[in-house]
Design a protein that fits this description.
The protein is of the alpha+beta class. The protein contains 7 helices and 28 strands. The strands form 8 sheets. A 6-stranded antiparallel β-sheet has the order 9-10-12-8-7-11.
């Protein structure tokens, strides 16, 4: 942990007993942390609610300060843990707002940014067009897409050095030297060399382009972030140095999945503030299915505005929280957090349920059942522009406009892809309209076993 992170004033006073409540802040004060709890474990408390931008551990006092990227994320976190006291090392910890609005650091906590999302095999760094750029090759395509979705647009330094990340066209990085400009973590025998790097393409491997991401940032020339990756890391485990301590990120034995120790492993989401007059299990299945494979959905029998959604794994659950918490759905702002339940139980035979609990574990509509699916590359936040695919040749522009209008959408723009008329973009009146349209029209049957595919687009018309 960076020693230059600091807070002063009332926060350093004794925290035992009750304290006067503070107004909401992005910085949260966590107390009664037992010895041995790592920074990574404290960070894991905040990850289900959004991006964590900073942490300060006060190890001698059993306290920590956690800075969230947004006030909404901090509020959601405090509200959730007010009713579900979190445990670290099987001991309860207590969370409240801090008097401080931000934590100031020297940014050493940004070291090993990309390793938090999985095993990085190779890195090549260079300058091009007055920008510092890098190529990173992951061992697993899922890790690459998680890094892209989580870090694209993330500021390395406060207010500047914004990362711009996309998938590279290269299928493999060939590294000749292990030095401060390039590194192959699977090879400890490479020479330090003269600093010259060689980037080559290799024979195509299945969806290898998903494994290589291309990050760059806009900032002063030569002012590159310190990545701090260690030399000689093994092929299956990569230690993460820096502020968060020795967090070990491992690849899972199951294809298409990753495990990050310290991050809550629960895959069941608690979704609240739903419109009970409009919400259905199928609607939640389709919407949350944009960000992972939904196995089960349960709308509470006595509280129809609350539901449980069980994703395939904890990583997908986290993605769904990141993108859907705070999204408007049928006139209400939806809240999504991790549930205290580990699984959704199906109703017993004869138990009254009224169709509110559904099992979708074997649904053919899962977008991510194939670990090499291109859908991993196309996960974007809800937007007013939808990407349409699998459009039959007989379907015209007017047909599609009329279809969306019939579901209550306002069509602001439409464009077929020039190189592939099976795909198109359609821009609707608002993000909420697009969310509703996706729920209604994904898998729409055009006849003759032709079904429309709908997802959120990263671009507009």
């Amino acid at each position: 942990m960076s020693n230059s992170t600091s807070v002063t004033g009332n926060e350093k006073k004794k925290t035992k007993g009750k304290r006067s409540p503070c107004s909401p802040s992005r910085v949260l004060h966590i107390r009664q942390i037992t010895d041995g709890v790592t920074g990574a474990e404290v960070v894991s408390l905040g990850l289900p609610f959004g991006k964590v931008t900073n942490i300060l551990m006060l190890r001698g006092k059993g306290q920590a300060f956690l800075e969230m990227a947004s006030l909404d994320a901090a509020v959601s976190m405090v509200n959730y843990y007010t009713f579900a006291t979190p445990l670290l090392h099987n001991q309860p910890v207590y969370i409240q707002y801090s008097n401080y609005k931000e934590l100031r650091t020297d940014n050493q906590h940004n070291q090993a940014i990309f390793s938090k999302f999985g095993l990085v095999l190779k890195i090549v760094m260079f300058h091009k067009n007055n920008q510092f750029q890098a190529l990173l090759q992951y061992a697993d395509a899922v890790n690459a897409y998680c890094a892209k979705m989580s870090l694209d647009g993330h500021c390395i330094y406060a207010g500047c050095c914004t990362l711009h990340i996309d998938f590279s066209k290269l299928t493999n990085l060939t590294v000749k030297y292990n030095n401060d400009k390039s590194r192959d973590f699977t090879r400890t025998d490479l020479p330090f060399g003269d600093g010259q790097r060689n980037v080559e393409t290799s024979l195509p491997t299945p969806f290898a382009t998903q494994h290589t991401i291309f990050p760059s940032y806009i900032g002063p020339p030569g002012f590159a972030p310190a990545l701090g990756f260690p030399q000689g890391a093994g092929p299956s485990v990569l230690p993460v140095p820096g502020a968060l301590g020795p967090l070990m990120v491992t690849t899972s034995a199951t294809p298409g999945h990753m495990t990050i120790p310290g991050i809550p492993g629960n895959s069941v989401l608690l979704v609240s503030n739903l419109n009970p007059e409009a919400i259905t299990p199928y609607g939640l299945f389709i919407l949350f299915g944009v960000y992972g494979d939904v196995h089960r959905v349960k709308i509470m029998f006595k509280k129809r505005g609350i539901a449980l959604v069980q994703m395939a794994d904890a990583t997908q659950a986290q993605l769904a929280i990141n993108y859907l918490n705070g999204q408007r759905l049928y006139g209400r702002v939806m809240h999504a957090t991790l549930s205290k339940y580990q699984t959704i139980q199906l109703p017993r035979e004869g138990q009254e349920d009224k169709g509110l609990t559904k099992d979708y574990s074997n649904s053919p509509l899962h977008r991510f059942k194939n670990p090499c699916s291109k859908n991993f590359q196309n996960i974007f936040p809800p937007s007013a522009t939808l990407h349409l695919s699998n459009i039959p040749p007989s379907v015209t522009v007017d047909d599609l406009k009329n279809l969306f209008t019939s579901k209550g959408s306002t069509v602001k723009g439409f464009k077929f892809f020039q190189k592939d008329c099976k795909m198109a973009l359609i821009q609707l009146g608002s993000v909420e309209e697009a969310v509703h349209a996706l729920i209604e029209l994904h898998n729409h049957d055009f006849g003759e076993n032709q079904h429309l595919r709908v997802s959120f687009s990263k671009s507009s018309i």
